[in-house]
Amino acid sequence: LRSYKEIFVEGSNGKRPWVERIDTIVTSVGSFHSWLEFNNELVTIGGVSREDLQQSCLGDVGGVLIPNPRPEFNADEFNEIASLWTGIQRKDFQRIASHAKDLGRPGVIVVAAGENKKAIVFELVKQKLVNELIVDQALAAALADECHIRTKFGS
C-alpha cells in the first residue's frame, strides 16, 4: 500500500505522486477481441460480463479502458466498469501526451502488434493519446487501409 500511495496518491517528503511527475510512458494496448488475463480479471473479479465489456469498451491502453465509439455506447455503463481500475488514469495519459512536445519528451509511446489492434490504436491516435507508435507490418498495413493509404505492405 505504501508504494501504491507514493505512485498514485502522494509522494514521500511532500512531493507529488510519481504518476504526476512522469513525462514518458512506454505501454501496450489491448483489444477486447482477444481475451487476456486483464480482461478475465474484469470479468471474474470485477463481475463485468464479457458482453458488457465488449459493448462499452474498445480496449485499453496501459490498463486504462477506452470507450467504444459506437452509437449505442452507454456512458454510465462504461464509467462503472472503468471505475474498477485503480492504476494510472486516462487524465495521466492525456497530460503526458499533451505536454510531450513542450517538454521535449517522447510522451506516450505505444507498442502494438497484430491487425486485431487496429481499432484501438486508431481510436487512441484520433483522441491524441499517443505521441509515438511502434507497430508490426500487419498492424501498419491495417492502419494504412483504415486511412486509405497505399503502402508497399498494405493494399
List keywords for this structure.
alpha/beta; globular; about 160 residues; 8 helices
Describe this entry's structure for a reader.
The chain is of the alpha/beta class and 155 residues long. It is 44% helix and 17% strand. It contains 8 helices and 5 strands; from the N terminus they run H-H-E-H-H-E-E-H-H-E-H-E-H. It has a 5-stranded mixed sheet with strand order 3-2-1-4-5, sandwiched between helices. The termini are far apart. The mean pLDDT is 87.
General shape: globular
Strand content: 15-25%
- Weakly predicted, low-confidence segments: none
The structure class reads alpha/beta
Give a brief rundown of this model.
With 155 residues, this protein is an alpha/beta fold. It has helices spanning 2-9, 18-21, 37-44, 50-56, 75-82, 90-103, 118-126, 137-146, and strands at 24-31, 57-61, 64-67, 107-112, 132-135.
Helix/strand layout:
Elements: H1 2-9, H2 18-21, E1 24-31, H3 37-44, H4 50-56, E2 57-61, E3 64-67, H5 75-82, H6 90-103, E4 107-112, H7 118-126, E5 132-135, H8 137-146
Parallel strand pairs: 1-4, 4-5
Antiparallel strand pairs: 1-2, 2-3
